Amino acid sequence: MSDKNTNFYADTNLRYQIYMECISMARYALAKGKSVPADSIKNIEAFESYIPAEDGGDDLLQIRREIDITILIDTHNSLARLIEPAVPKTVLLLDREQKNKTMLKFLGAISLVRQLMLMAIISLIIFIALLSSPYINGTKLEQDVLSANGIEQFARLIFYISAAGLGASFAALYKVHDYISKGTYDPAYQASYWIHFLLGLIAGLLLAVLISEQSIQTDGVLSKGVIRPLLAILGGFSADLLYTFLNRMVETFKSLFAGSTQTILDAKTLEAKSKLANLEVDVRMKLAQSLMEMQQKIGAETDSEQVKQQISDILNNLVKSK
Predict the structure, then answer these.
(1) How far apart are alpha carbons 199 and 172 in whole angstroms?
(2) Buried-exposed string 204-233: b where 16+ CB fall within 10 A, e elsewhere
(3) Contacts (Cβ under 8 Å, ≥6 apart) of 203
(4) Beta-bridge partners for 212
(5) Largest Cα–Cα distance in the chain?
């Protein structure tokens, strides 16, 4: 995205921002075939004031400040409801990008898409060029990456990075295209796409280097030499794949040193809890038995109904709490 679009909200006063979002939403709704109230268009035009340009260029637009802004805010709210699920910020961005004159406009609606498309094209060109070179073939890709040296080693690493770039750019373009088509793309998250792209490059390269083809059973589904490039593409598409792989490795190494000790401690803790529970049951049963014997010894001549009632209550509580 250009700096002009990035800093628009920071450098623009609120009244002008609301006006620009209103006119962008009205254009968007009309282009989508939605029914835009005539009053909304009139309210937008009521805030326009143009100063004729002296050099014959475009007239300078000014937003009238003497009109109550409540009218413009109400128009903004009604148009925002009309274009849902699209949001005003995205619609304004797309509208401004349409006026952006660039040779790469055919690559996408916004600058982020164009940049990602360029990265995908560059990755594809490098991938095809290296795949056609003598340094990359099925037999060599089967071998351990560290077995090569010099220019051949460098060519393999660049080949895996280009494969990861294909996967990373594909994932980023697919995600951003979904947001743009719905009108919900937020330029504030532009950096996150590049972070995911870079993580994808790292993940794809490491997966291709760390995992050997012999460790993966494909039962003849994949031809020899395809697994490493495929791992690079998968790692680029989803950096979570590398995170899961490394996390499993860490858990495996931890179990080698702490697994047996932890298992013994857990078993001892469980045994202690079991003994404590059995002891508690035994104590309650013995107490209940004693109280029952005491209750039987009390005769009618003692006339101690209150004592009997108390003992009976104790017995009931013990049985219920057991």
Answers:
(1) 12
(2) bbbbbbeeebeeeeeeeeeeebebbbbbbb
(3) 164, 235, 236, 238, 239, 241, 242, 243
(4) none
(5) 124
Nearest by Cα to 213 from 196, 202, 229, 190 = 229
pLDDT band of residue 54 (cuts 50, 70, 90) is low
Residue with tokens 């979570």: 240
* pLDDT tens for each residue of 75-125: 999 999 999 999 999 999 888 888 777 777 788 878 899 999 999 999 999
DSSP-based three-state secondary structure for 228: helix
268-320 residue pLDDT tens: 788 888 888 777 777 677 677 766 766 666 655 555 666 666 667 666 665 65
ω into 85 cis (within 30 of 0): yes
Segment holding 51, helix H or strand E: strand 48-51
Three-state secondary structure of 273-302: HHHHHHHHHHHHHHHHHHHHHHHHHCCHHH
Nearest alpha carbon to residue 158 among 189, 136, 186 = 136
Helical residues (DSSP H) of the chain, grouped into ranges: 3-6, 8-11, 14-31, 38-46, 69-82, 88-98, 111-131, 138-142, 150-182, 190-210, 227-237, 240-254, 260-297, 305-321
DSSP secondary structure string for all residues of 169-225: HHHHHHHHHHHHHHT---GGGHHHHHHHHHHHHHHHHHHHHHS-GGGS--TTSS-TT
Angle between helices 150-182 and 227-237 (to 10 degrees): 40
Specify the pLDDT at position 152.
83
| C-alpha angle 266-270-274 in degrees, rounded to nearest 5 | 170
For residues 17 and 63, the answer to whether their CB atoms sit within 8 Å is: no
At residue 49, the 3 state secondary structure works out as: strand
Round to whole Å and give the CA distance between 251 and 246: 9
What whole-number distance in Å separates Cα of residue 126 and Cα of residue 102?
25
User: Which helix or strand (DSSP H or E) is residue 50 part of?
Assistant: strand 48-51
